[in-house]
Design goal:
In the C-terminal section; belongs to the transposase 35 family. The chain has 415 residues and is α+β, with helices and mostly antiparallel strands. It folds into 2 domains: 169 residues, no CATH class; 141 residues, no CATH class. It has a 7-stranded antiparallel beta sheet. The chain has a 5-stranded mixed beta sheet with strand order 10-9-8-11-12. Strand 13 and strand 14 form a beta hairpin. Helix 4 packs antiparallel against helix 5. The radius of gyration is 24 Å and the shape is globular. The relative contact order is 0.12. The C terminus is likely disordered. Bound molecules: zinc ion.
């Protein structure tokens, strides 16, 4: 079985390397934005979108032209990768997976990717990596890189530089140690409730840091834009953002590791987070209802990283030999697990479930988790017997159901 895995380290660049990396990231951003602007103009003129090959041709002209000769200083492959990213952004937009591609801004996701392993040298013994036009870079060697290097991404976050090394290696198909199955209900008051009764407290990393962040943002707004003090204040805001991300990632990783090691089959509801987190305000013709409450909920959902939770569960289960089963969200919060009665009245409040038919009473999230586990069992049985189940609405990947896939449904941890 092929296992794709990313290893991420903090870089310890020299001053010159830092300046170069900033320049390279800036060049990539410039190329992305220029290509996007061009595609938009073509669209307005009624012309067809340029393909990747066409854009690469233009990139060569830009690099050799008189207007932007500095583009030639940046390594060419990362610039081309930027155009690939733009292609993918368009593809995601047309497939309705994402919004229209947006222009990149300085300081947001500054990064560039080296796609050719032949140009990359990794010297783990000396904790250094060689990248084209940057030379040897030292990194904080916190763990061994396993497998064959496929590509390398350099990125900036919170004033630091990181390198993410994507690798591929052959591993033996894992045999799951756990045998149990569990259903998970995702919620706002409880981040996740398992059908065995355990639950995870809400992840309020953002809330906890919110005051801190607001103060820093206010301090920044009081400074004269682009002054030295403004830059310092901005660095502080970015640092808090990075810290929030770290806390959230750490929490999610711990939760998903525990769950994937203790259960062979995990059933989860296919919540369409994208729909839920879409602007609650609606449009002018069709204004949204309960805008305040909904945007609060949306924020909580995003804050808690449900998507990230599911993504991590998916690949960690695959690594452990388990399976993630996504079930369509139908009546999971309204069905009585004791008598099967389905009614919206069963759920009088957000927290309590009380069956109007048989009087069964339980925490509403736990009831949801039990129902999700049942739905998952039914789905799993159909898969095994070969019956065709309609895919859950918006199911992210069918790999989750495939039991004998040669390549596991690995998510590449994009940290
Ligand atoms: Zn009942």
């Amino acid at each position: 079985m092929q296992r794709l895995q990313a290893f991420r380290y903090e870089l310890m660049p020299t001053g010159e390397q830092q300046r170069q990396m900033r320049r390279f990231a800036g060049s990539c951003r410039f190329v992305f934005n220029r290509a996007l602007a061009l595609q938009k103009e073509r669209y307005e003129r009624g012309e067809k979108k340029l393909g990747y090959a066409g854009l690469c041709k233009l990139l060569t002209e830009w690099r050799n032209g008189p207007e932007t000769p500095w583009l030639a200083d940046a390594p060419v492959h990362p610039l081309q990768q930027t155009l690939k990213d733009l292609e993918r952004a368009y593809a995601n937009f047309f497939a309705k997976r994402a919004g229209f591609p947006r222009f990149k801004k300085k300081g947001q996701h500054d990064s560039f990717r080296y796609p050719d392993p032949k140009q990359i040298k990794l010297d783990q013994g000396n904790s250094r990596i060689f990248l084209p036009k940057l030379g040897w870079l030292r990194y904080r060697n916190s763990r061994k890189v396993l497998g064959e290097v496929k590509n390398v991404t350099v990125s900036a976050s919170g004033g630091k530089w990181f390198v993410s090394i994507q690798t591929e290696r052959e591993i033996q198909a894992p045999v799951p140690k756990a045998t149990s199955a569990v259903g998970i209900d995702m919620g706002v008051t409880r981040f996740a409730t398992l059908s065995d009764g355990t639950f995870y407290a809400p992840l309020n990393s953002f809330k906890r840091h919110e005051d801190c962040l607001r103060r820093a943002q206010q301090a920044m707004s009081r400074k004269t834009k682009f002054s030295n003090n403004w830059k310092k204040a901005k660095a502080r805001v970015q640092k808090i953002h990075a810290r929030i991300g770290d806390v959230r990632r750490d929490y999610l990783h711990k939760a998903t590791t525990t769950i994937s090691q203790n259960h062979a089959m995990v059933c989860i509801e296919d919540l369409q987070v994208r729909n839920m987190s879409r602007s609650a305000a609606g449009t002018t013709e069709n204004p949204g209802k309960n805008v305040r409450a909904k945007s609060g909920l949306n924020k909580a959902i995003l804050d808690q990283g449900w998507f990230e939770f599911r993504r991590q569960l998916d690949y960690k289960l695959a690594w452990a030999g388990g399976h993630l089963i996504v079930v369509p969200p139908q009546n999971t919060s309204r069905t009585c697990p004791a008598c099967g009665h389905v009614s919206a009245d069963n759920r009088q409040t957000q927290a309590r479930f009380l069956c109007v038919e048989c009087g069964f009473e339980e925490n509403a999230d736990l009831v949801g988790a039990i129902n999700i586990l049942r739905a998952g069992h039914a789905r799993f049985a159909c898969e095994v017997s070969g019956a065709v189940m309609p895919p859950a609405a918006g199911t992210h990947r069918s790999d989750s159901f495939r039991l004998d896939a040669g390549v596991s449904a690995v998510g590449i941890p994009r940290l």
